[in-house]
Amino acid sequence: SLEIIEEYKEWVENKKGFAVLGDVDSRSEEKVVQKTLHGSASYYCKINDLDISPEPNSSRGPADFKISRGRDKTVIEIKLTSNKDCLHGFEVQIEEYAKSEETDNKIFIVVDNGRSSSRIKEVEESYEKRLNASEKPATVIVIDAKPKESASIYKPSKAT
């Protein structure tokens, strides 16, 4: 499952996937992330004998995705930094989805769309706190979906 997410992250950050996400109104943006991730993951799942289920609803509401092979299941939840429920998604939603799917395999994707980027720090601090309390928090993956300048005009910051 992580391999799928890393490929999607690469597409968004380095292959202009951010342009696709940036052209969508904010109310639809999370759905577009879900649909483009599902589209990019479908073939990988097919050739690796995995089942990908968008929005499976086993009891407490639907996670964004479940990827499984037999009893080996991973639940995936996606939140944009502009979503006021980003931290709640990490601390409550994904935990409840994992309980209903009877799995400890959880991936929480934070998509930084340039709005309320401070929510990334909130999620990372919560992750560290839970890890230090010997809990099993979801793996956090941050995807930078902010628009990027063309390489012809980009000037990297100089380290001093």
Task: Note the topology.
Layout (H helix, E strand, L loop, with lengths): L1 H13 L2 H6 L3 H22 L3 E4 L10 E5 L2 E9 L5 H16 L4 E7 L5 H15 L6 E6 L16
Parallel strand pairs: 3-4, 4-5
Antiparallel strand pairs: 1-2, 2-3
Would you give an account of this structure?
With 160 residues, the protein is of the alpha/beta class. Helix content is 45%, strand content 19%. It has 5 helices and 5 strands, in the order αααβββαβαβ. The protein has helices at residues 2-14, 17-22, 26-47, 86-101, 118-132, and strands at 51-54, 65-69, 72-80, 106-112, 139-144. It has a 5-stranded mixed β-sheet, with helices on both faces. A hairpin with a 2-residue loop joins strand 2 and strand 3. The mean pLDDT is 88.
Give the SSE string.
HHHEEEHEHE
- Principal-axis shape equals globular
Count of alpha and pi helical runs: 5
Taking the sheet with the most strands, its summary is: 5 strands, mixed
Q: How are the strands of the biggest sheet laid out side by side?
A: 1-2-3-4-5
Low-confidence stretches: none
Please give the radius of gyration in angstroms: 16 Å
- What's the β-strand tally? 5
> What percentage of residues falls in helices of 4 or more residues?
40-55%
Structural class estimated from helices and strands:
alpha/beta
Q: Report how far the terminal alpha carbons are from each other.
A: 39 Å
Strand % is 15-25%
**What is the mean predicted local confidence, pLDDT?**
88
